[in-house]
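User: Structure please.
Assistant: Input sequence and predicted structure:
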Amino acid sequence: MEFLNPYAFILLLGCLVVFIKNNNLPFKKKILEKITKKVSFTKKKRFFIYLLAYVFLVFALARPIIKHGYTTVKLPKSTIVIILDASAPMKCKDIYPTRYDAAIEKLKVLFSKLNLQNVSVIISDNNPYLLNPPSNDYNSIIYLLKHVNKNQLFTSPISHINKAINAAKKSLKKPLIFLTISYTKPKTGLFYNFAKKPCKGYGVEDSGIKFSYSNEDIEKIVSILKNKEKSKTIKILDKTELFYYFLIIALILIFIATFWRKK
């Protein structure tokens, strides 16, 4: 057995102080009589029960543990940067209900298959802006995506995804894995092709991972992301906490010393 917080034992010095100064209970006599009235313990016995309870509380604060060894865990090191195109062609309805809305639904599926990788989303219209810093709180990211003010999107007739990629390289910590959701191919990274039919002067590019109403496209993306992923290995202590046993015993002793009565 070991202790995560051994400095808590310094509190035991308080016991010595109490012994040196006096052996009386730390309660006023009148208050104690009102609480307990007829008790089965002498003041001296009650004092030692309180003292024992204090010792158990100190042990609880020291957080005793039983070690079971270490577990090796691989954690993702890279950040997946998702460039979500929000230019005017993303309002096209060749993908139901619109390309942009369908992209958000696809991201929900993608996030459900990721293994705690950090994700940062950049929405790209005339000027790209960072929706969230690197995070694996996927529910919050989806919430933010659904509450973006669409009245301020779809203003640009052309895509600016490459500008967004350049901005991400300057502002986000590497290593980065880029996933671009657009109708036009980016200069770098994984291209998720979100176009079924020509729309607003743009044709359909024959490249990238093409949108599918099934989850086949997401499975391909996840597979590629796993191959690109850089991970780090850490060791986590497998332990059993014992502090609550000491805490329970201390509470029982305090209860007995305070409220125990004769039959």
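The domain at 78-229 is CATH 3.40.50.410 (Rossmann fold).
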